[in-house]
Specification:
Layout (H helix, E strand, L loop, with lengths): L1 H29 L11 H18 L5 E3 L6 E4 L10 E7 L5 E6 L6 E5 L3 H8 L17 E5 L5 E4 L6 E4 L5 E5 L3 E8 L5 E6 L24 E5 L6 E6 H7 L3 H4 L12 E6 L12 E5 L4 E6 L4 E7 L6 E6 L3 E6 L3 E2 L13 E2 L8 E6 L4 E3 L3 H6 L9 E4 L5 E5 L4 E5 L4 E6 L6 E3 L5 E3 L1
Antiparallel strand pairs: 1-28, 2-27, 3-4, 3-29, 4-5, 6-7, 7-8, 8-9, 10-11, 11-12, 12-13, 14-15, 15-16, 16-17, 18-19, 19-22, 20-21, 22-23, 24-25, 25-26, 26-27
Helix pairs in contact: 1-2
């Protein structure tokens, strides 16, 4: 009996000790002075709490490692007929933790023309803002997305995971930075030289399709916005919520089409400014991609009007582009999101390819014909382009295609059937780097 009593006392002690330690750790991490008021106890308690994650990090490969033991490092050429007049290529990769680099490459020679190696830790510190509710923990190794090359050889990048947009000069020094909101996904120039960026405020707007209690969702709702920015100073010239744009244009049913809401309703992931006029758009119009609605639309910001909108056949797409004067191109990830909130999940994977659809797809919508075609299906299937998230594509002037298989760390150039070139950045014999939204430079 005494042994049983002693056993229960020990179990109770461990239980209450665990609760105490958990509360202590929580107070340390949530305190504005990062545990400073707890004195000498803060550091050892934080260290003990972080031991499991430190062990896990030590044993696992970093997230940007993509398994590939076959592809040749750098640009591998198979048949470059027709590639003699390809544009230049700006890539973003990591060769080690806190070692992100940007490289301008001549095509098809593969020669490196320019490289940027900014201080990753400094960029993180500049981007960290305690008001950001989704800040990664301090000391995190971040990814810097979609470098935009300027005429003075500076580049503009965002960190996606934290609140940072920065312009870095040709010598890797920061010219200016913003950390007042989250900057994410694409960065593009319009016909007037202004930047368009996908942004998220730390506190959402208030909308009548959500609960009456604004406080219940203001810190949770992902209120993506289309923001126009001065590239010389980083000053935001205008910003408009995508949710508000859809509501203003009568698309409430699109936002609520299943009678359900999620915190990330639209997931804005591309803003493509029109650089020339056509019968279907004017300079300054914007082509917009909303992943979580599987929807793209053409928007005229000067009058706050959606001119055209289409949902599918693409699913969870990334990257939309104007093509010629009558077409747009959509990179369809064509993956399915598992977001069950009731009952058992169909799969534990948050994103998955189905038995029917086993790779990404490139769609071409023709305004004049009101048709959608998939002219690069064979190449996509043969090359097994299967990035769950992200993904980029561009149709080149000669009709060839450029595709970024982001998660799997490959760039593929080819025609509708055959691969002409492939680019990877090798880390070691078994792994290559994931890529972070490459760009063609004309």
């Amino acid at each position: 009996m005494k042994n049983l009593r002693r056993f229960f006392i020990i179990i109770a002690a461990i239980f209450f000790y665990t609760i105490f330690l958990s509360s202590f750790v929580r107070n340390i991490y949530l305190s504005t002075d990062v545990g400073g008021k707890w004195g000498i106890l803060a550091s050892p308690v934080k260290f003990m709490a972080e031991i499991p994650s430190l062990i896990k990090r030590a044993l696992e490969k970093p997230e940007f490692y993509a398994y590939n033991n076959t592809s040749k490092d750098g640009l591998d050429k198979f048949n470059i007929k027709g590639a003699e007049h390809y544009p230049k290529l700006l890539v973003s990769y990591k060769d080690k933790e806190f070692g992100q680099k940007f490289e301008l490459i001549d095509l098809p020679s593969g020669k490196t023309l320019k490289q940027w190696e900014p201080d990753n830790a400094e960029l993180y510190n500049k981007g960290f803002n305690p008001k950001n509710p989704e800040n990664p923990e301090k000391g995190s190794d971040l990814y810097f997305f979609h470098p935009l090359l300027m005429s003075d050889s500076s580049i503009i990048v965002n960190s996606q995971l934290t609140s940072l947009l920065a312009r870095i000069n040709k010598d890797n020094h920061i010219m200016w930075y913003n950390n007042d909101r989250r900057y994410h996904h694409t960065t593009e120039l319009d016909h007037e030289g202004n930047i368009y960026s996908c942004t998220r405020p730390f506190v959402s707007g208030q909308y009548d399709i959500f609960p009456e209690d604004y406080n219940s969702y203001k810190d949770i709702l992902v209120d993506d916005a289309i923001s126009k920015i001065n590239p010389e100073t980083g000053e935001i010239l205008s910003s408009k919520s995508v949710i508000q744009i859809l509501l203003d244009n009568g698309y409430e049913n699109l936002l609520l089409y299943k009678g359900q809401v999620i915190s990330d309703m639209t997931h804005l992931n591309d803003i493509q400014p029109a650089l020339y006029n056509s019968k279907h758009w004017l300079k300054g119009d914007l082509l917009i991609s909303c992943r979580n609605l599987s929807t793209v639309f053409l928007y005229r910001p000067s009058i706050n009007k959606i001119l055209w909108l289409k949902t599918g056949p693409w699913i969870n797409q990334h990257d939309v582009d104007f093509y010629g004067k009558e077409k747009v191109v959509v990179f369809g990830n064509d993956v399915i999101r598992e977001e069950s909130s009731q009952g058992n999940k169909i799969t534990l994977k948050p994103l998955y390819f189905s038995e029917k659809t086993k790779n990404n797809e490139i769609y071409v919508y023709d305004f004049a014909m009101n048709t959608v075609t998939t002219p690069y299906s064979r190449l996509m299937e043969t090359e097994k382009i299967r990035t769950l998230t992200s993904g980029r594509c561009d149709i080149l002037p000669n009709g060839d295609i450029f595709v970024e298989d982001t998660n799997n760390g490959r760039l593929v150039f080819g025609d509708s059937i055959n691969k002409k070139m492939e680019y990877v950045k090798r880390i070691d014999d078994n792994y290559i780097s994931s890529l972070f939204w490459s760009r063609l430079i004309y």
